[in-house]
Amino acid sequence: MSALTATELQASILEALDAADLVIAAALAGEYSSVLEAEAAIGATRALIQALLPQISTVWGVRANATLVHLRAVAARLLDLRELVDDSGATIEVTLDREASLVELAVNWYGDWERWTELADLNRRLSRPARVPAGTTLVRYAQ
Fold it and tell me: How many structural domains comprise the chain?
């Protein structure tokens, strides 16, 4: 990053904070479809912040300590977001080794019989959710 004027630097700081706000809001709202997608957004935003830190010190010196502390805290908060993002939307395929019902599978896979409707939604081709034959390949959520 080339040397910025004080005005350009201020604009870049606001841009970095706006980007961080968007990433944080998206993570809290569960908008990332995978951890990899979240990691890419978090990494890009942290890189933007990290690139600004030395320039802030150069342009404003000691007067910039509060800004530096704030930006470092934002960068650290971005790392914490990784824990909020889960791959609950990720699916896997499972081939049944014996006949089972979707209710039974929901209990075995998720510990909750009511999630059989999720299995039914993911496997709409099933004609009889109460009797799924052995050898059938089903799609289920990884979590």
Answer: 2
Q: Using 50, 70 and 90 to split pLDDT, how confident is the model at 143? A: low
Structure confidence by residue, pLDDT tens digits, 69-85: 888 888 888 877 766 66
Cβ pair 140, 120 in contact under 8 A: no
The answer to whether residue 108 sits within a structural domain is yes
Could you tell me the residue range of the domain that residue 24 belongs to?
Answer: 6-83
DSSP the chain: -----HHHHHHHHHHHHHHHHHHHHHHHTT--SSHHHHHHHHHHHHHHHHHHHHHHHHHHGGGGHHHHHHHHHHHHHHHHGGGT---TT-EEEEE-SS-B-HHHHHHHHHS-GGGHHHHHHHTTT-S-TT-BPTT-EEEEE--
Of residues 91 and 113, which shows the higher confidence score? Answer: 113
Please list the residues that pair with 140 across neighbouring strands. 92
**Given 33, 59, 83, which residue is the final one in a domain?**
83
